[in-house]
Structure formats: structure tokens, C-alpha cells
Amino acid sequence: MKFSRLRLLGFKSFVEPGEFVIERGLTGIVGPNGCGKSNLVEALRWVMGESSYK
Q: Which of 11, 33, 40, 54 has the fewest other C-beta atoms within 10 Å?
């Protein structure tokens, strides 16, 4: 399975619409504490079939 982008709206800390483009190769998620890095990973896990998003 390959992802090219992820659009979020109203998922945990992503109240405003956001779109994340995932380029070919190695993709890293970096940022300051509290910016939503873990929530972004949780969204990807939910899209891949995890039954709930905590």
C-alpha cells in the first residue's frame, strides 16, 4: 500500500482542514512538541484499518 497524500479535517488536533503530501522515498515527520506528529501517525493507522482512533 502506498500513500500519496492524506487529508484531515476534524481529526483530533486537526480541526482546520489540512493536506499532507507524501513524496516518494523516505518521509519523516518532525516538529515541535504538541504540533500533532503523533496524531498524524494515528490518522495513517486508522486509514490502514485500525478499528478506532482512541
A: 33
CA distance 1 to 21: 15
pLDDT 10s per residue in the chain (54 long)? 788 999 999 999 899 999 999 888 888 899 999 999 999 999 989 888 876 655
Tell me the residue type at 15.
V
Domain count, the chain: 1
In a domain, 52, yes or no: no
Other Cβ atoms less than 10 A from the Cβ of 8: the count is 19
Q: What domain range includes position 41?
A: 5-47
